[in-house]
């Protein structure tokens, strides 16, 4: 059953879906972060069964379809995002199955089935990280791969002001907070990087890589000036982190 936070976030994402159509899909992992072209975390996906958590408008799934994945599954909280993904993927070569569902719940996804589960800049929307990771572990085959990216938890603790970087929030503070950047209210979760890592270990994953690198170009200096994901901040603090792990 939906809780109040999920209901709020669903309304927010339904309203924002058009704005975020096709935003930062694979091969991107997030703003000002290295790409899959750089990192090669997925490797050859030919014939693999793959599931995306928070699939949005379906553009990352489209990227994998173009690389001949065997099956492409996705779930997203937003009905409008799922509608967009269905339209985008209608002529896919891969088998496609999409669910409108929060990531904390299993809408009918099989156990021990997937070679890869992944999430591109969506995992931080979960209202229950432990439950979401348990679900991912449940979906994966033994030895299956889980790759996800999200905003680095240090990034929103620090603000740029008058040419200086100021830490105005505690890194140790975790929990829910109101996301105020959108017109429609939404609730997000703050976790330390160690919380992500420890919960992965507790839920039966072996961590292979943790990536906090930044990819900055001359174009980024201009394009991201004075934005939330800015050159000014990211030259000192990673905007995103990426973790690759496997089900034991």
UniProtKB/TrEMBL annotation:
| Protein's UniProt name | Methyltransferase family protein
Q: Which Pfam families would you find in this protein's record?
A: Methyltransf_11 (PF08241)
CDD domains in the record, alphabetically?
Answer: AdoMet_MTases
Taxonomically, which superkingdom? Bacteria
Organism classification: Bacteria, Bacillati, Bacillota, Bacilli, Bacillales
State one molecular function term (GO): S-adenosylmethionine-dependent methyltransferase activity
Q: Gene3D superfamilies from the xrefs?
A: Vaccinia Virus protein VP39
Entry keyword set: Methyltransferase, Transferase
Q: Where is the signal peptide?
A: none
Alphabetical GO biological process terms: methylation
Span of domain Methyltransferase type:
51-148
